[in-house]
Design brief:
Strand content: 5-15%
CATH superfamily of the largest domain: Vaccinia Virus protein VP39
Number of helices: 20
Distance between the termini: 41 Å
Radius of gyration: 28 Å
Shape: globular
CATH architecture of the largest domain: 3-Layer(aba) Sandwich
Oligomer: single chain
CATH class of the largest domain: Alpha Beta
Structural class: alpha/beta
CATH topology of the largest domain: Rossmann fold
Strand order of the largest sheet: 2-1-3-4-6-5
Helix content: 25-40%
Length: 510
């Protein structure tokens, strides 16, 4: 790999993921832009950059000095699945306009912009087209690439969009996306206190209680190794690596059978219009006549099931003096029966932001509604939250860990290799032989040195590391940019790019 010297400016710099990759490849940081105090301090202490190099809020920057490469990890919330998907209707989406304005003003030889994969989803097609058109209008030749960090040297499933552009069309045509590495870094490679050799022996795949063969739960992006990658905690899925609340709590075989009946049948259209529906006592008894109301109530007491007010009779004598929202809700009902789950599918109620549960409560108080049917559902019906504070526990045999996010997750790791559900519950879950990833491990999962200096508070360092780019991906991309020869015949720019401290106000203010 040839070594060249080039200059760069680092917008939305975070904790220095772009900067580290640039510096490792001969880049000199002229300035960076960041507004988060923790990120600024982390950036400066790890890179030994003076805080005076921070240009601050990008919306106040009107001028960038001449430089060779512009980088920007534009905030992703506007396009993220975890966000509200407002795109350019979100103020943060407008930061793309600020970024492209500075690209057009400073005219570097090349740029790298990073964002979440949601930007290329069909629902954001117009936004992506707009961004690419604005870049083209600025005189740049750019393409976007969807890359997974796992393919470039970290044990993390992190898919991101990278827009890479050049001022010279011939240089742009010569750019080649770096190939993914063959020798992938695995989760076991970065776990603290793990030295055991993993033997990937084939194991016989068991059948579930419904008679279906269940393959191992896998986060791996390569051929399955025959072992479970993780155990999943929820009551809405089933498999030999799924842990249910009735596996954890002290329940009888009879109670387990009732839970499995609900699990197997709740998604059938005969029981309702949703993807998962509560079942009434009569529904249970259609499948097993011996099931009693007391048995269902016992599972409610165990907090495995919950009782749901499902259908209501509309009292025609109480329909006067209703509020607008109440009237709209009742107009959506079929006949004289209100079924709460059917209302959840009506788009108009969502657009008008009418709370179904709140409005039903008011109508019950007014006597407009009378409860006519109760049903039973699992108490824990949100897959993403898991059970009792645990979503997934990953084993060392997993190739990768899920995407690190700023808000942290209920994902854990264990350093013990386990093959069966019973062994996992007895040796890992009950004995609490699992933990969250450490600060050192989180750094390695993102491709930073394990001793990268971060705040002590987990909430603070997780926010920083979860918002960062994966360093090895940027490293491979900048190497590919250098290979185009774009920086081969640079004119020394040190004098042109040095901005005296007393002139910084003119750089950062309008």
């Amino acid at each position: 790999m040839k070594k060249v010297k080039f200059t760069f400016i680092d917008l939305f710099a975070g904790i220095g993921g772009f900067r580290k990759a640039m510096a490792d490849n001969g880049g000199e940081c002229l300035y960076f832009s960041e507004i988060n105090t923790d990120a600024i301090n982390t950036y400066c202490v790890n890179s030994n950059e003076p805080i005076e190099k921070n240009l601050g809020d990008i919306t106040k920057i009107k001028y960038l000095p001449k430089h060779n490469l512009l980088t920007a990890g534009v905030p992703c919330q506007s396009w993220s699945i975890a966000g509200k998907n407002l795109g350019f209707d979100d103020d943060r989406g407008q930061l793309w306009n600020d970024t492209i304005f500075l690209l057009n003003q400073s005219r570097p030889d090349a740029f790298i912009f990073e964002n979440v994969k949601g930007l290329v989803d069909p629902r954001n097609k117009k936004a992506l087209t707009y961004i690419l058109e604005r870049i083209k209008e600025s005189g740049y030749f750019a393409k976007y690439y969807v890359l997974n960090s796992f393919d470039y040297g970290v044990p993390q499933n992190r898919i991101r969009v990278y827009i890479i552009g050049f001022k010279d069309s011939k240089i742009a045509e010569s750019f080649r996306l770096p190939k993914s590495i063959d020798d992938k870094v695995k989760l076991a490679d970065i776990l603290n206190n793990f030295t055991e050799k993993i033997e990937y022996d084939d194991i016989e795949l068991p059948r579930d209680l419904f008679g279906d063969i269940i393959t191992p739960k896998s986060m791996s992006l390569s051929t399955s190794n025959g072992l479970n990658d993780y155990f999943l905690f929820n009551d809405l899925r089933n498999g030999h690596s799924t842990i249910h609340s009735w596996d954890i709590k002290d329940t009888t075989e009879r109670q387990k059978e009732i839970c499995y009946l609900l699990l197997k049948n709740r998604r059938k259209r005969a029981y309702g219009c949703l993807d998962g529906n509560p079942l009434s006592l009569s529904h249970f008894q259609e499948m097993d006549r011996s099931i009693s109301k007391n048995e269902l109530e016992d599972l409610v007491d165990l907090e495995i099931l919950k009782k749901v007010d499902y259908a209501f009779k509309i009292n025609p004598d109480k329909l006067e003096n209703l509020e607008e929202e109440e009237q709209i809700l009742l107009e959506k009902c079929k006949g004289d029966i209100l079924i709460s789950d059917e209302l959840k599918t009506i788009r108009e109620l969502k657009l008008k932001k009418i709370s179904i549960s709140k409005t039903i409560s008011i109508l019950l108080e007014k006597g407009v509604l009378v409860l006519s049917e109760s049903r039973y559902d699992f108490k824990n019906t949100k897959i993403s939250t898991g059970l009792y504070g645990v979503n997934r526990i990953f084993l060392p045999s997993s190739n990768i860990f899920p995407t690190l996010v700023a808000s942290d997750t209920n994902d854990f790791v264990t350093t013990q290799i386990i093959k069966t559900k019973k062994e996992f519950i007895d040796k890992i879950y009950k004995k609490k032989n699992y933990r969250r990833v450490s600060k050192e491990e989180a750094c390695l999962i993102q491709g930073f040195p394990k001793d990268y200096i971060l705040p002590d508070s987990r909430a603070r360092w997780m926010k920083l590391i979860g918002n960062s780019v994966s360093v090895p991906v940027i490293d491979k991309l900048v190497k590919a940019i250098i290979e185009t020869g774009v920086f081969d015949n640079l004119v020394p720019q040190r004098e042109a790019t040095t901005v005296p401290c007393e002139d910084l106000d003119s750089v950062t203010s309008g």
